[in-house]
Specification:
Blueprint (H helix, E strand, L loop, with lengths): L7 H6 L9 E3 L5 E3 L2 E2 L32 E5 L6 E5 L8 E7 L11 E7 L2 E9 L6 E5 L2 E5 L9 E9 L11 E4 L4 E7 L2
Antiparallel strand pairs: 1-2, 3-11, 4-5, 4-6, 6-8, 7-8, 9-10, 9-11, 11-13, 12-13
């Protein structure tokens, strides 16, 4: 699972981000790559590039974990369960971005992997956090849940702010975020106090 990373100092230096993605000569022989930021209201349910090209590598688990569906993953190691839920549900804590045979086949920057081996077959759901502009996600090592941003009973509440594209880290996020360097996007977030 990827942890939130970022730096307030680096974020304060970068106050604006280019509105498009381009590569252009800098005049010094070097090439400048510009990071793009989502324009207008951010739809965290449809992040361009979030679902890898090889999203469905097995039919096993297609009913339990369809690509793009939201799921509720709960439990402790050894007894984790996964249930498909409506993406507007308070239970939706992950979005299925890929379904493969084994965990090591998931795109390397997936936020979480869920493996199920049964007599009917083996499959792995590769997942990212199910961000929503309507609230926060509490990201703890043993539990990820949707949360009200002002609920001080839950630790590590992260409010998604925007999405940066063509980037591999959180250096251009104001408060930090969750980078997906393989798929080249970052969800910038703000930790709630």
């Amino acid at each position: 699972m990827f942890a939130k990373t970022g730096s307030l100092i680096a974020g304060m230096v970068v106050l604006s981000v280019a509105g498009c993605s381009s590569t252009e000569p800098s005049g010094t022989g070097a090439t400048t790559v510009r990071t793009s930021v989502a324009s207008g209201p951010v739809d965290f349910a449809k992040i361009p590039g979030q679902i890898p090209a090889e999203a469905e590598m097995t039919q096993q688990g297609s009913e339990e974990a369809p690509i793009g569906a939201c799921v509720y993953l709960k439990g402790k190691p050894g007894s984790v369960t996964l249930n498909k839920v409506d993406c507007d549900s308070q239970d939706a804590n992950y979005r299925v971005i890929q379904r493969v045979g084994f965990p090591d086949q998931c795109v390397n920057d997936a936020d979480r992997r869920f493996y199920l081996g049964s007599p009917q077959g083996e499959w792995t759901a590769c997942m990212d956090y199910a961000w929503t502009s309507e609230g926060c996600i509490s990201v703890a090592p043993d539990k990820v849940v949707r949360a009200e941003c002002d609920d001080k009973n839950l630790p590590n509440r992260e409010r998604p702010i925007t999405i940066l594209f063509n980037t591999i880290d959180t250096s251009r996020c104001l408060f930090g975020g969750f980078a997906h360097p393989v798929r080249r996007f970052t969800v910038c977030t703000e930790t709630q106090k």
